[in-house]
């Protein structure tokens, strides 16, 4: 088995906690992009590693070798001219590992398909529920006494708010809440959530990025709302009051719909009320070191997967007599 396949599969053990630590020291928008990109790179690298591992084992099967016009004795000799896959013919480890990789790929494919179907179904039901409500542009008001408000992605995206939520807030707080949900739509924050969910489906260790990403997106929208209304205390009051009003609401909103009432609300309110002091020289150096470590993890994971793919390609060409 090619040792280049190991780093993409194990790198999330180190990269996930490093990414979480770095994101905690960044502005919300930068943190959201960092976490989403980290999840995407690690998921793509680990999935490619599984594909290559399964392909490596499949090439040892005579029907597959014949289909690819491979010279099977050369492929299984595993000695000369096979690049990084010099041990390709070591069936003792390669075949069981390839079988496990094939099963994992099948499970991932099924989970991703199911998640995509569930996501589309939830959005369809949510949009159908807003079909008969009072709508004004991007705003859709549901006649419901339960307080709730969320940003519903789609074409066009809509801010869905219930009459119960409107009654629970004062006029200025309503404006801040709507600005928060409008920021979710403008920033396409649902795409970040989808990327994180699919990445976690591809590699279980990447589930650790979902909570900090959700928090970063809510903080991003909080800051946008504070800028829109020009009052951080008003934005904090709107978030807190909306969360208190919706705490007993059994919401049926889609999983990709973001709402100001979710996440660690007290922590978000505190962040709005108390400005973060600028980082000192020591903190800045520590942040740069953590960023360098994370960049190294991502580069190593991606480079190892690409190198393994190149090695397999070269091995197949040699086995084809090219």
From TrEMBL:
InterPro entries: Beta-lactam_resp_regulator (IPR052173), Peptidase_M48 (IPR001915). The chain crosses the membrane at residues 31-53, 60-79, 91-115, 289-306. Keywords: Hydrolase, Membrane, Metal-binding, Metalloprotease, Protease, Transmembrane, Transmembrane helix, Zinc. Its cofactor is Zn(2+). Binds 1 zinc ion per subunit. Residues 138-196 form the Peptidase M48 domain. Belongs to the peptidase M48 family. This is M56 family metallopeptidase. It comes from Streptomyces fildesensis. The lineage of its organism: Bacteria, Bacillati, Actinomycetota, Actinomycetes, Kitasatosporales.
């Amino acid at each position: 088995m090619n040792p280049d396949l190991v780093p993409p599969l194990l790198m999330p053990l180190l990269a996930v906690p490093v990414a979480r630590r770095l994101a905690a020291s960044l502005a919300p928008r930068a943190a959201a992009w960092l976490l989403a990109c980290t999840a995407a790179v690690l998921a793509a690298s680990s999935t490619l590693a599984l594909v290559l591992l399964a392909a490596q084992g499949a090439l040892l099967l005579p029907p597959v070798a014949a289909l690819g016009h491979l010279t099977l004795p050369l492929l299984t000799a595993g000695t000369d001219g096979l690049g990084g896959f010099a041990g390709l013919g070591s069936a003792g480890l390669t075949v069981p590992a390839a079988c496990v990789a094939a099963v994992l790929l099948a499970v991932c494919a099924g989970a991703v398909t199911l998640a995509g179907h569930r996501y589309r179904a939830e959005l369809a039901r949510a949009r159908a529920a807003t079909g008969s409500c009072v709508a004004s542009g991007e705003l859709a008001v549901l006649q419901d006494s339960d307080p709730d408000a969320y940003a519903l992605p789609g074409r066009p995206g809509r801010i869905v708010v219930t009459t119960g939520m409107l009654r629970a807030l004062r006029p200025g707080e309503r404006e801040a809440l709507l600005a928060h949900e409008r920021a979710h739509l403008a920033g396409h924050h649902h795409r970040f959530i989808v990327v994180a969910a699919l990445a976690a489906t591809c590699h279980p260790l990447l589930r650790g990025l979902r909570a900090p990403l959700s928090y970063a997106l809510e903080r991003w929208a909080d800051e946008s709302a504070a800028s829109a209304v020009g009052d951080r205390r008003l934005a904090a009051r709107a978030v807190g009051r909306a969360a208190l009003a919706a705490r007993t609401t059994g919401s049926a909103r889609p999983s990709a719909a973001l709402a100001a009432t979710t996440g660690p609300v007290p922590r978000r309110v505190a962040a709005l009320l108390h400005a973060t002091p600028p980082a000192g020289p020591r903190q800045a150096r520590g942040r740069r070191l953590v960023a360098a470590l994370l960049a190294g993890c991502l580069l190593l994971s991606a480079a190892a997967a690409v190198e393994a793919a190149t090695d397999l390609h070269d091995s197949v060409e040699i086995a084809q007599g090219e």
